[in-house]
Amino acid sequence: MVETTPTHQEVVETPQTSAGVDTDEERLEEPVAPAKKAVTSDRRELMKSASLVALGNLGSSVLGMLRQSFIAYTGPGISGPFFASISPAQKFNDFIVNGSVPGALIPTFNDYADNREELRRLVFTIVNLVLMVMAVSSVGYFFIAPWFTNTILAPGFHPQEQLLTLHFTQIIFFSLLALGPFAVLQAALYAQKEFGWTAFAAAAYHAGIIAGAIFTSVAGERFFGLGHYGLAFGVILGTMGEIVLLIPGMRNQHLRYMFVVDLKHPALRRILKLYAPVAFSFFFSACVAFLDQFLATQTPCIDVMRQLKSCGDANFSAMGFATMLIQFPGGLVASALSFAVLPTLTTYIREGDIERFKSMLLLGFRLGLLLMIPAMVGLIVLKLPIVALLFQRGKFTAAQGILTAMALQNYAYQLPFIAIDQLLISAFYARKNTIIPVAVLVLSVLGYLAVALPFWQTLGMPALVMANTVQNILHPLILLLILWKTVGSLHLRGLLPALMKISGAAVVMGLVAWALQSVLARFPFFSTATFMGSVLTVVIAGGIAAVIYFALVILFKVEEVSMLKGAVLAKLGKK
After folding, report:
1. How far is Cα 502 from Cα 323, in angstroms, rounded to an integer?
2. What was the pLDDT predicted at 15?
3. For residue 92, is it within any domain?
4. I need a surface site. Which of 175, 236, 416, 460 has the fewest CB within 10 A?
5. What are the distances in angstroms from CA 171 to CA 86, 226, 569?
6. How much is the pLDDT for 11?
């Protein structure tokens, strides 16, 4: 299930700048050149930060897709239990600490940017508190895991798969001893605009799971049956690697470990106040996600899987593989932009510069749509060869490929909205408002329920995927309306010319990709039933279509393309 990360907090009214009330004489006296320089500086800062985070996310996402490919090789009998078992640890980590990163930790740590020792004391107070909470929780979960697995995580699995899910989830929950502190340290480095090591650290998580998948494939039943547990121990290995990769960044920022638990620190109360609504949102999201998982493990087989008596593991695995593919552009674009823009938006709010706040947000919208709309089109048109290329080997069958492609298409419709949503959430976080996104989350879940509950038993897994898409489309639309009512016009009309050009180029791109795929499919050499055929189809059809898309947006003079080009060249050392 693809999830956004809503956060909330009390609304703090932002003082309006003089931009809307200046007299004509005051306007004439305003220095125009400095304003232009400020806008240019804003754009360069956003592109620099976003491209660095995106570069790190690219490495992490590539490893993430490789990880899914290795997991797929193990077959649904192992991948299904693994996907089911990993969610409790992820949801609990989101609830306790990870969800607080953008909404509470980064803005608060940013306030202590000029007082390094006080920042260090605050950071490691939270690290130590989180470590204690995770240790106690991991031991407690070990004993309630049997009930939770049979009732919530895998009620539709076969008994053998339920047992494997139980053992997986008991092992994986102990990864929180590293995951929790990692989230706090990551927030501290982001607040200091130390994006490099934090962006690349997440790759270690995927690398650990890949190592575990290889061990499972090689060991199998050997080593007293422990070979099947490679994926679970790979999670532990990966989370330890994340912490290790943060150490250079911590050294750069002089954040040496400190054994301190300062419960009287004034920032703790502020963080709790900011995070309380966010924590509720993650608790609520976790309940919806577990409902989604509960339904998915019991969904009926679709036509291509009719030969099986039970499809719960195959359906849930397909949703997991498709989710990873959606998270690739989501992490590369939406998350990179939202994390890069948050410190700057927070600064503008603190300074009361609402117009630059709006300008930065609108710039983020345009950049997000420039990349997410073609990503949506490409994944929909080339879904079958992409799935075959990444997953169709080992115990992953062609029928499971069709199932995953179906889930991928229904998830892909939400991609442009995810980009807008992440930026809007950052805008509310910058205003120290974490209540509104949570309230909107509750409303958007009604969209999920309206689609999922009536159709999960008849349409099956595709209905659950579409329900999630409806939820993630509603969330940014409602947030956008509320922000417009709160801060005034966001100048969205200025977005329309770029949106029309981007959409037109994306339609042409989709038609070209579809035509090339259809032509190539007539030749056995390009058959998606073979690995090489899938590679060539994706590279030729996808590559030519992508070149045409960027050629068209350049021809249409979409301004953000030149900014993107400048950022890429700067990273390559050519500018």
Report:
1. 25
2. 31
3. yes
4. 236
5. 10, 12, 44
6. 31
**Alpha-carbon gap, residue 168 to 165, rounded angstroms:** 5
pTM listed for this prediction: 0.69
Structure tokens at 35: 């304003």
Q: Is residue 108 included in any domain, yes or no?
A: yes
Query: By C-alpha distance, which of 396, 239, 384 is closest to 325?
Result: 384
Give me 330's structure tokens.
Answer: 């989501």
Q: Is the pLDDT of residue 173 over 90?
A: yes
Whole-angstrom distance, CA of residue 345 vs CA of residue 72: 40
- What is residue 526's DSSP assignment? G
Calculate the CA dihedral of residues 243, 249, 250, 251 and round it to 10 degrees.
120
Total domain count for the chain?
1
- Residue range 413-433: mean pLDDT, rounded: 86
Q: Please report which confidence band the pLDDT of residue 56 belongs to, taking 50, 70 and 90 as the band edges.
A: low
Instruction: Identify the CA nearest to 379 among candidates 538, 503, 518.
Output: 538
Distance CA 369, CA 205 (A): 29
In a domain, 162, yes or no: yes
Please check whether residue 286 is in contact with residue 91, taking contact to mean a CB–CB distance below 8 angstroms.
yes
Tell me: the pLDDT tens digits for 488-542?
Answer: 888 888 788 889 999 999 999 999 999 999 999 888 888 887 888 888 999 999 9
The two three-digit tokens of residue 462, written as one number = 């595709």
Give just the sign of the alpha carbon dihedral 533, 535, 536, 538: positive
pLDDT value for 240: 92
Per DSSP, the residues of 89-146 read HHHHHIIIIITHIIIIIHHHHHHTTT-HHHHHHHHHHHHHHHHHHHHHHHHHHHHHHH
SS3 431: coil
Query: Cβ contacts of residue 70 below 8 Å, gap of 6+?
Result: 209, 210, 213, 214, 217
pLDDT at 291 over 70: yes
Tell me the residue type at 225. Answer: G
Place of tokens 């419709």: 413
Of the candidates 394, 456, 352, the one whose C-alpha atom is nearest the C-alpha of residue 18 is 352
Q: Supply 572's token pair.
A: 């390559």
Per-residue pLDDT at 225: 58
| Nearest one of 505, 318, 331 to 418, comparing CA atoms | 331
Residue 229 lies inside a defined structural domain of this protein: yes
Mean pLDDT score of the chain, rounded to an integer? 80
Residue range(s) defining the domain that contains residue 113: 48-283
User: DSSP letters along 536-548, please?
Assistant: HHIIIIIHHHHHH
Phi-psi region of 185 (alpha: psi -120 to 50; beta: other; left: phi over 0): alpha
Category of 14 on φ-ψ map: left (φ > 0), alpha (ψ -120 to 50) or beta: beta
List the structure tokens of 420.
């807008």
Q: Tell me if 74 sits within 8 A of 213, measured CB to CB.
A: yes
Read off the amino acid at residue 172: I
